[in-house]
């Protein structure tokens, strides 16, 4: 008799658990935004939009919970869930989370901008993520920093759908890389774990370059670049990069030993 698939339940449970963490993050970011707004109001400076503020924090957040996803494995296996169902459920929940964050962030940000603009209290800064990346010299350290805080960006006021899609792609890759690194250290030794860190950074840099090419954004000088790839092929490159991470994570979790 074929065993019933548990991955939909795993996906639902993990999505709900991670959503509670996410709402806490968004709440904290909203409080920070309010405090920052009060401070800037007194000094007469421009304010970043809530959408842009969370854009930076969300990447780091998804990377961290990607690492923590590794520790759900033991819990589910202990409760009779197969490694395959755990993997599929975690992957589905991460996709849902990757779209939920930019959608909720955009709704809150749009409301705040509408309210504050009508009250004529603030003017809002234009995002400079794409241009700021051009001012950083190519170096391994600067490339790592750029990878975490200056991902390719589309202003929602110009194309809200594309903005959400790019946002979701960015943070989904952060999650996958965190998950890959977490499983690398969980299943293997430190050397292999450090190898996954290197693989993750390389793929993230490649992802940024491919996404910039696809969006026809300026590409900064970096140690690794894909500026020679035609824009028409960059989407395929993005898909391949994501599949490499997904396949590696499946391989690492497939036979991972679990202490029960």
TrEMBL record:
Signal sequence, renumbered to the chain: none
Task: Tell me which UniProt keywords the record has, alphabetically.
Answer: Membrane, Transmembrane, Transmembrane helix
Transmembrane intervals = 21-42, 54-77, 89-116, 160-181, 188-206, 236-253
Specify the protein name.
ABC transporter permease
């Amino acid at each position: 008799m074929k065993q019933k698939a548990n991955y939909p339940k795993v996906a639902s449970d993990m999505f709900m658990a991670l959503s509670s963490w996410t709402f806490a993050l968004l709440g904290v970011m909203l409080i920070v935004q309010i405090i920052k707004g009060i401070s800037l109001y007194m000094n007469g400076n421009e304010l970043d939009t809530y959408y842009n503020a969370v854009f930076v924090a969300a990447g780091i957040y998804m990377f961290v919970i990607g690492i923590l996803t590794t520790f759900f494995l033991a819990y589910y296996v202990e409760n009779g869930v197969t490694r395959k169902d755990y993997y599929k459920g975690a992957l589905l929940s991460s996709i849902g989370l990757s779209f939920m964050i930019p959608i909720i962030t955009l709704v809150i940000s749009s409301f705040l901008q509408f309210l504050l603009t009508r009250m004529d209290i603030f003017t809002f800064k234009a995002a400079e993520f794409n241009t700021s990346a051009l001012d950083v010299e190519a170096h391994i350290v600067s490339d790592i920093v750029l990878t975490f805080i200056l991902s390719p960006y589309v202003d929602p006021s110009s194309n809200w759908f594309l903005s959400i899609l790019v946002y979701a792609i960015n943070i989904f890759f952060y999650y996958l890389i965190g998950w890959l690194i977490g499983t690398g250290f969980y299943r293997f030794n430190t050397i292999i774990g450090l190898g996954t860190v290197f693989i993750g950074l390389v793929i993230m840099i490649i992802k940024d370059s491919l996404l910039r090419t696809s969006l026809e954004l300026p590409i900064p000088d970096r140690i690794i670049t894909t500026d020679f790839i035609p824009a028409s092929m960059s989407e395929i490159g993005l898909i391949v990069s994501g599949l490499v991470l997904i396949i590696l994570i499946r391989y690492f979790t497939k036979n991972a030993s679990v202490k029960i």
